[in-house]
Queue: 4 jobs
Job 1
Amino acid sequence: MASEPWLAITTSVLAGVASIFLGLRFIGKWWLQRRVWWDDGLIVASWALFIGCLALIIRLTVSVNGDNSTESWIEASASSLMGPIRTTLAVVSIAWAKSAFVLS
């Protein structure tokens, strides 16, 4: 469960590192005057899914560690769906990133 704050902190740090490397990749392509290919689009889509996964982790961390006394049953059921959605986003993000590097 994403109730531990260390999970959100660690994922945020990894998202920052991934963002830096993604930026360096595009700066390098611009500096060397190389074209952006379809694998770059796949890497950007993978990064976007990773950021979506991070947003869900932070949302789960805040909702579990916050005051839930006023949480309605709709919010509780939506919160219980975030775990599987987060897992799906993470797995698809990893698969897309690996596919981009293998196929390029």
Job 2
Amino acid sequence: MSETSQLLHEIEAFIGTTDMAASTFGRKAVNDGKLVTRLRAGSTVTLEKASRIRAFIRTASGADADALEEARTPPAPPPRSRADVPAPMPCPFPEGFTEGQSR
């Protein structure tokens, strides 16, 4: 089995157990949504990219999976309080002024 087909086998096993779409896997692993499609079509990857893919699989399938997802998710903004709401603007019209009335 070639290195590329071994890598593809590892990827297929990972996305099969996690129910992750192939494009999502490629995007999350190496920022390439067409990675798996290209590998299935016979393309190859560099040793560096293969190493990054395997590192992603190790991290995402281990106990660090929650930490990985948490690191990729931006923190929620803090809740707003009434103190955060600006005070209303004063009315620019004189007391008793009604619409359509001239000064």
Job 3
Amino acid sequence: MKAANGCLVYQCLYCGTIDRKGRLTDSVFRDHVAIENVPFYCRLCKFRSQDRLKLCEHLANYGRHQQAAAKLGPMLNNRELLVKAPSPRFVTEADIIRVPSIQEVAAETESVFLTDWLAEVTPVVTTHCDTL
């Protein structure tokens, strides 16, 4: 299955939510993984990621972080806020699965149907013609 923008979609094996892979990964971290097990997170705004670079980028791009940082003012030390989990848990195929497209489902159904149909034994009727 594909999202409206053409991206593949995935399904959470815990709650059944369907979304793009990146958004679903964020959802799994937010809703199904304890924050201390998320590979990288921010103590200030609770941003979570399995990618260190995204954690660093969130300092400039993530609105919730910027709002919270503005309240703290210049005394904010971002290095103390960014956390790398000592025993990280990553989102894998054990957490989310790709939802097949309609075309994939149709092709698989047709393949199974043809295989079953070809395997059927049909009696062969022979006739003898005495006159030609």
Job 4
Amino acid sequence: MFFYVLVLAGVALMCAALVVLFRGDAAGLRRWVWAAVIVLVPIVGPAVFLLVNRSGRKAKEKIPR
């Protein structure tokens, strides 16, 4: 039973990361590289993407324009 919960959590995390990726401002090759990392490295790939994306967004907000 625990295995199914873990698989479901992994799939949900992967879907959430892909939605954030394709709704974001990443373009071209960078977007497809991240998509490959998210899909090919379960659990860790989506988690790393969401953490990097979150810190990148905060850095962009701090830059004065």
